[in-house]
Amino acid sequence: MKHYSIAIDGPSGAGKSTIAKMVARHLNFIYVDTGAMYRALALYFLRNNISVADKEAIENACNYADVMIDYKDGEQQVILNGENVNSLIRTEEVGNMASASSVYPVVRLKLVELQRSMAKKADVVMDGREIGTFVLPEADLKIYLTASSKERARRRFIELKERGISADINEIEKDIIERDMRDMNREFAPLKQADDAILVDSSHMTVDEVKNTIIKYFEEIIQNSSKELG
Ligand code: DC
């Protein structure tokens, strides 16, 4: 049976997970948050005091860190060696470690296998950095979702403020630019727009506008494929 896949790639803070979740809910697809998988491995490295500069230690640790995905009430749960780590992986420290450790092919290949097997079994909306270029090159729809670094910093600042955390907006933007550079310039499967991906710049769009735009593109694809068949 054919399973559909929608790949949503883009830099940190572009709103990928919010949008991907909404699109998945609308279409009754499974949402696969690949960043959470990298974050779970990053948590393992941090807990075990593994330096990100120590390639051998990272490679070795990959043999002992088992990442699995489960769903509870429609929400993705990341299981690290049997422990649900969902509530522990959203810190800046874990995010930075995920960005730094994901440069290693051994880290990526371990998780890519899991991601591809999920897309084989269900209709998925998968978000990440290289889903359209590397993980699912045959995805039915590829979106490259971005926004200016200023706008992404502003959104992050508001989100932190709402959680009662004070932060410097310029520092946030600096961090975002740094992470973009690292994600875009790594040697193996860097963040970049696939040739056949549609660029959606959300800087001046509402969340609903972005969601509806993506759903419209997907519906067009379904219509065109049913015309070709019939
Ligand atoms: O999307 P996120 O912020 O949760 O991702 C954290 C880091 O994980 C990101 O900076 C780079 C890495 N990552 C990746 O390399 N490939 C993916 N498909 C998803 C995340």
Structure summary:
It contains nine helices and eight strands. It has helices spanning 16-27, 34-47, 55-62, 92-101, 105-121, 131-135, 149-162, 169-185, 207-229, and strands spanning 5-9, 30-33, 67-72, 75-80, 83-84, 124-128, 141-146, 198-201. The chain has a single domain (5-223), classed as Rossmann fold (3-Layer(aba) Sandwich).
List the helices and strands and how they pair.
Layout: E1 5-9, H1 16-27, E2 30-33, H2 34-47, H3 55-62, E3 67-72, E4 75-80, E5 83-84, H4 92-101, H5 105-121, E6 124-128, H6 131-135, E7 141-146, H7 149-162, H8 169-185, E8 198-201, H9 207-229
Parallel strand pairs: 1-6, 1-7, 2-6, 7-8
Antiparallel strand pairs: 3-4, 4-5
Helix pairs in contact: 1-9, 2-4, 2-5, 7-8
This protein binds 2'-deoxycytidine-5'-monophosphate.
The site of 2'-deoxycytidine-5'-monophosphate has 14 residues, from α2, α4 and α8.
Count of distinct structural domains: 1
Could you tell me the number of beta strands?
8
Q: Can you tell me the overall shape?
A: globular
SSE order, as H and E? EHEHHEEEHHEHEHHEH
CATH architecture: 3-Layer(aba) Sandwich
How much helical structure, as a percent, in the residues? 40-55%
> End-to-end span in angstroms?
18 Å
Percent of residues in β-strands: 15-25%
> Any idea of the CATH class?
Alpha Beta
DSSP summary: helix tally? 9
Which sequence of strands runs across the widest sheet?
2-6-1-7-8
Query: How much is the radius of gyration in Å?
Result: 18 Å
